[in-house]
Design a protein that fits this description.
alpha/beta
Length: 426
């Protein structure tokens, strides 16, 4: 009996060891673990189908699909890196890569990626994954922030409907939301449970940049005129004009949809991919449309943090992992991934696909904005996660609720924020 128990324990241990990380089996077949963060049904199906297609044509290099979660990916990856159990191929977002890249956990892909992929994706996208002169991920999906509008409400109100060629200015947007409000209804519902990314990325349209890097590479926070436009607009809509619902300021994007469908809000600023939820959840006959976000001194420019695919530094088969990335991101496959996630591909060839340029569900509006997407302001700032969580998030939440004024917001973002960032730049 003791012998059986020992054999069983050893068998389980070997099984767990074999599943913990990629490697080479006794028969010479390589196994790579690919952790995907796809969560929408169409996206999960597209990823799994592509993995199956790879495995069918590469019997000696098998890819094992592993389901991850956006909710816990940073902490989960950090734990797996430190424990030597990281997946070989890692799905993440570019604004989460800096500390992993500087920490030596991700492989430099500069010499591993094919020239086809390097040239197909614009340089501005590669900037989001470049650290220490190395490339630590492949940016492959991105989404602009847009306005999802009740088309019937806008049509009946008689307001000018913006287009990518003639967008609203931030001042005009404020006036439109005032005109659409009244009787317990609001022109806009801002879902700002996580206010930092939305505020910073949209502020590029007004010429804001917030983070300033000097000649020696040191980053400081300066809240200047261009940085004020977006937060001041939201603050005035919610606290002065009463044209923005105060109850949604602490909500996530999905939380605003029931009120939007019920006719409480004329517009909701959301990421482009939320269109899928609207298609799935909107009442029959609900007429909606996609509008570009307002523009300022910087035009329609806005920041994005693309979704990325990286290879772990500890992966023993980096060339094979890079070959899988090349397959996964062939133009036709990139289109499949984009359609599954209702997002935009970074690749030029994929972006030109007619399926992504149809007027249905606002695809054409999104692709019209693609050339105006730039790296998010905080993209390469070390210490950004702590600055965001401990300084910027509470300060912006209090400002948007009317608890503090613009001067105090500026003071906290700059003084408290620079103290945090200084610890990462010594």
């Amino acid at each position: 009996m003791r012998t059986r128990i020992l054999v069983t324990v050893l068998a389980v241990a070997l099984l767990l060891t074999g599943c913990s990380s990629g490697g080479t089996r006794d028969d010479g077949r390589i196994t790579l673990r690919f952790q995907s963060l796809a969560w929408q049904q169409e996206s999960v199906e597209a990823n799994k189908e592509l993995v199956e297609e790879w495995n069918a044509t590469h019997p000696d290099i098998r890819v094992e699909y592993v389901q991850g979660s956006w909710d816990s990916v940073h902490d989960q990856l950090l734990t797996s890196f430190e424990g030597g159990e990281a997946p070989d191929i890692i799905h993440d977002a570019s604004d989460d890569l800096a500390d992993f890249a500087y920490g030596g956990y991700l492989a430099d892909l500069t010499e591993l990626l094919p020239e086809r992929l390097k040239s197909d994706i614009p340089g501005r996208s590669w900037e989001t994954v470049t650290f220490k002169d190395g490339i630590y991920g492949v940016p492959f999906l991105q989404e602009p922030r847009v306005l999802i509008a009740n088309a019937t409400w806008l049509r009946q109100s008689g307001v000018r409907v913006p287009t990518p060629e003639q967008p609203w200015s931030w001042a005009e947007f404020r006036q439109v939301t005032k005109r659409l409000s009244g009787g317990g209804k609001y022109g806009v519902a801002w879902p700002l449970k996580e206010p930092v990314s939305a505020t910073l990325n949209l502020s590029l349209s007004a010429g804001g940049r917030l983070f300033h890097r000097d000649a020696d590479g040191k980053v400081t926070v300066r809240f200047e005129e261009g940085d004020e436009v977006v937060p001041r607009t939201v603050h005035e809509q919610a606290n002065t004009d009463r044209s923005a619902s105060p109850t949604t300021l602490g909500s996530g994007g999905s939380d605003t949809l029931p009120g939007f469908f019920a006719g409480k809000y004329a517009m909701v600023p959301l990421g482009f991919s939320y269109r899928q939820q609207i298609v799935q959840q909107a009442p029959k006959g609900f007429d909606w449309q996609v509008l570009p976000a307002p523009a300022g001194a910087g035009g329609l420019t806005q920041g994005v943090s693309p979704q990325t695919l990286s290879v772990a530094e500890d992966c023993p088969h980096k060339k094979e992992a890079a070959a899988f990335l090349d397959f996964l991101l062939q133009p036709e496959n990139m289109v499949r991934l984009a359609l599954g996630d209702w997002m935009l591909p970074t690749g030029r060839q994929a972006l030109a696909d007619p399926a992504l340029r149809t007027a249905e569900h606002g695809w054409a509006t999104g692709t019209a904005l693609a050339d105006r997407l730039r790296p998010a302001p905080a993209q390469t700032v070390r210490g950004y996660p702590e600055w965001k969580d401990k300084v910027a998030t509470p300060a912006l939440q209090e400002y948007y609720s009317g608890a503090i004024g613009l001067d105090e917001l500026r003071e906290r973002l700059e003084e408290d924020g620079n103290l945090v960032l200084a610890r990462y730049q010594r």
